[in-house]
Amino acid sequence: MSDAPQLLGSPVVRIEGRDKVTGAARYAAEHTPPGCLYAWPVPATVVRGRITAIHTDEALALPGMHTVLTHENAPKLKQPDDPVLAVLQDARVPHRGRHVALVVADSFESACAGAEAVRIEYESAGHDVLLGEDHPGLYTPRTVNGGYPAVRERGDFDRAFAVSPVQIDATYTLGPLHSHPMEPHASTAMWADDGQLTVYDSSQGTGTVRDSLATVFGLRPEQVTVVSEHVGGGFGSKGTARPQAVLAAMAARHTGRPVKLAVPRRELPAVVGHRAPTVQRVRLGAELDGALTALAHEIITHTSTVKEFVEQAAVPARTMYSSVHSRTGHRVTALDVPSPSWMRAPGEAPGMYALESAMDELAVALGIDPVELRLRNDPEYEPDTGRPFSSRGLAACLAEGAARFGWYDRDPSPAVRKEGPLLLGTGVASATYPVYIAGSSASAHAAADGTYRIRINATDIGTGARTVLAQIAASVLGTPVADVRIDIGSSALPEAPLAGGSAGTASWGWSVHKASTALARHLRERTGPLPDDGLTVTADTVEETAAQSPYARHAFGAHFAEVAVDSRTGEVRVRRMLGVFAAGHILNSRTARSQFIGGMIMGLGMALTEGSTIDPVFGDFTQNDLASYHVPVCADVPEIEAHWIDEDDPHLNPMGSKGIGEIGIVGAAAAIGNAVRHATGARLRNLPLTPDKLLPYLP
Q1: Which terminal CB of the chain, N or C, has fewer other CB atoms within 10 Å?
Q2: Active-site residue numbers?
């Protein structure tokens, strides 16, 4: 029988923790097969145009050089499933920073020196890199990220808004943002004599990378093995195959030797995706009692000329609050910029910043407490679909958070609480994130010595997935977690979806639970000892997850923040943050708290420190490394707490769990922005809230 430390929800310590702190855990760039070569990319230095000449003689004359791959001599690829992967295939330059050559040498230092020696001539063309509200290229896409319709309308928003007694009409802007995981994007590739390709890749899903590599190299999926056993963060930027995996495999095929490529950090923003900038107009109409009568959330954003990706920032407004009359829509324009992609709660994070800021503005206009305003507009059914919620813990999160934070002790008047030159303020915001669950497969093995082995192609990007999957299996099998071994992070394992959309544990855990349940049943029914090679059971959840749920399934949360604004310098310091979340049954309190707190700190970065601009002349991101792109550190968060409401939701999966990886970030930036408004009386609508923006409004 299992004892208390093994139960789901218990704070079991990460089972791979010792390997990570001792260096035994091997990451993609730490695999060095015999005869391994090193590659270094050469980025384009024009914004848009064509390559007219490439001079490699000086580079090839350097010691240790093997080759320089360009569009003139690189292996030709098949049509990729993602146009971003069509690297070194033609002379076109669609944006600055696109990799246009790859230097391969026998050492890292030689490869870097060779890249410096490559000279490329270009024919430049005019470029367009700046998003504007009146950009002539704006159009309405059919769908946005996640497959959501770009536009949704209910009722008659224009009429309802026009007659609303209280109206808010505000525009919020957010510049490009970047993931910058601790482990950069890296791949080590090798080809066997029989044509088998093996790639150690820093990715969030080896199955997805395998399929992309098989496509571009004209292979069957079973001819490709991708391994991502340990991953140092991804935040969406490693959600699909990235160019370095293709480049490493191309170079390995061309040279006949293993090749290792780690993308330089300063080049990551140009080649691995970014959060696209958004301009978001939110209009709220309400009765004098705070009841919403009209809600519109309309955004514009950019994509690249390489492919279309549209941040679905207006989608969360379709879920959050009651309003008979609603309009949510997206417009986009294709610019000469790198292709945007997923990043940290795509859509929800920027969208809820705008919506929750507007809700705070409405509360001020009405003279109603911001928590109370949200409670008065908490719907029983999902407004967009009419479906009942499987569970909706927003009201409980707001109530619990307000009590823990001491919310009702505050003076709601702005700019009245001071400590010398410091202006103090508090803010609140709601959060939501959808429940995504995909079909998955797993095997469960019982060994003759009484131990168990779970095999599934899950990916642990630092969240503790190994540990939680072991807990799920142990809870079903009635055994200590220490007796369960977890094999993950290889496309050779049973098929499973990538780690993204906060869907990993809910998807993988369901198949692990199903396989473990079947194994436990076989063991109960079996008489006599197990054979020497043990007993294995496989299971998948394709059928269960394919069924459309009659319920609207979402996680919810409430964020509270207290800030101090220095009236002399404009500097904003967060004194404390509190998050309360409703995300089904929490499977490991230790790893869950880490994820919630991590998300909240990401939201702090979004609010105060993380900012990026596109140079209109050079067409690249001015802030392209961690010296100029500022992420928050421990000193930026003196006090941070995460709590949760343990929901009993039977409409999810056998564990009753929702994803928690992204709900922590969604409302944090708005809570901080609302606290700054309370502290100063100034409403700033452009993130991040840096001192230069605040100073003109301070006494």
Answers
A1: N
A2: 662
